[in-house]
Amino acid sequence: MTPVRKRFTVEEFHRMAQAGLLGEDNRVELLEGEVWELSPIGSRHAAAVRRLRRLFTPLEMEGACLIAVQDPVRLSPFSEPQPDLALLRPQPDLYQEEHPGPQDILLLVEVAEASLAYDLAVKAPLYARHGVLELWVLDLEGKRLHVFRSPSPEGYREVQTLAPGNHLAPAAFPSFSLPVAELLG
């Protein structure tokens, strides 16, 4: 018999955590049925996520979105990544009944301190295949912002890389322009 790779569902992934196979301190996420171990969060990464949270707070305060920090999003029965920051459509119950899905996501942001290759080669295509409208990957080492828009099953059709000196607004909030230098810190 030829060995077959076992793909886990989100439900099986949650049961593994409940059974203690995945501890609370394990930094893992489920992508296309595979459990991926994430790199530890460094101080620059943590500071960048806090900075992003602070920069997007005015949108949340005016009720335009909900901000989720390192919370799961359910892309499919086999994928539940944990992006560093998500701007979500407002929902009165704050997604209490289920994690937000692609239709709820206005913008995802991944912060790359040691994970740039993973974010660009693994997560960006995954987000595109599942219809996430916009993804930003903040490259702390290279001091660049990678912007992905117009998702398709083959990947994002619009990709640009911005440096300090540029400004950018999320597609969902075109009048909310932010300096790339401020995003990078």
UniProtKB/TrEMBL annotation:
- Protein name, per record: Uma2 family endonuclease
A molecular function (GO) term = endonuclease activity
Look up keyword Transferase and say if it applies.
no
Q: Keywords assigned by UniProt? A: Endonuclease, Hydrolase, Nuclease
One Pfam family, short name? Uma2
Q: Where is the Putative restriction endonuclease domain?
A: 10-181
